[in-house]
Amino acid sequence: MKSLTPELERRRREHLYRRRRVAAGAQQPELVMDGKPLLTFCSNDYLGLANHPEVIAALKKGADQYGAGSGAAHLVTGHSSAHHALEEELASFCGRDRALLFSTGYMANQGVIAALVGRGDAVYQDRLNHASLIDGGLLSRAQFKRFRHADHAHLREQLTAQEKGEALVATDGVFSMDGDIAPLPEMAEICARQGAWLMVDDAHGIGVLGEQGQGSLAHFGLNQDQVPILMGTLGKGIGTFGAFVAGSDDLIETLIQQARSYIFTTATPPAVAEATRASLKLVRQESWRRERLQSLIQQFRHGVEQLGLPLMASPTPIQPLLAGSAEQALRWSQQLEQQGILVSAIRPPTVPEGSARLRVTLSASHDEKQVERLLDALATLQIEEAV
Ligand SMILES: *Cc1c(COP(=O)(O)O)cnc(C)c1O
Q: For the whole prediction, is pTM greater than 0.85?
């Protein structure tokens, strides 16, 4: 049995060591982390629904009605009327035939890819796809190809070279660490022409993009025929927990029969499904949350551009500042924290080598004054770096 210490020490030395913070209380911009009050800009609770009174009330009521645990997998006794109603509401929300709940987005990606392709087939993925898509692709045993980020011409080249087997193309809708949106209309056209499945992981688009928050497919006006597989998560913009896949009746039935991460796991507590149902109503109705986000994004981008910091191009609440080295990203993060602001440093292997960054995220629960505070703190970074 080898010693684990040297690898841990290497990570420390290379500024790649990760540590957890302990948050007291509910998700909101002002958090007490490790006993210290901090203004945070790194949560994925984009619409500020994780701590919404109506969502909390639905969770409590759901617990009274259904108890604390689901007791079994969906295929045994765990599939409650709360789960079932939520699936129907999600399908109608996304304009798709049906939806299927998974316990997490990570599991949904694993389950879908391995259910649809295997040995003798091929999976094509954007280089910057989320780790759960990458892992799902590897687990499926299909031939694994990665195309250059957001480069549909490169995808076309790879797809046309495939001689046999099924093809599945998977992409983030909104890229989790970059905030940019995939060229979905072009990808949909290429996939249709080549007879390939197109799967969009919209973990960061759901709730945020589209008229009622239906995500990046609604943003582009793409329907179920153009993008047959939509995966959405419920723990980010929706503010609760879990994930879903939406698409045709045949797709959903196939997943129920074959997706191992659906079949072999306990259903999430029904009360959580009730909380999500309440949240989904707010997502659809309260478009002011999306409008407010857009105005905070404009305020932030305008401010950062004036400071001359290396802001990446992004129209979404994910607004990364490119630091380069892991050491630089960590130092920036520490300098902000000294001023009472928390933005975590994102380092390899989450992002490619040399592209460590501060991943700033904005939420509808932030206000203009808080964004001002962030900009003031960022201004001091620039001065120190210029010295
Ligand atoms: C967070 C995330 C996931 C995983 O979803 P969970 O429900 O947190 O497991 C999948 N894909 C992307 C792009 C994500 O950002």
A: yes
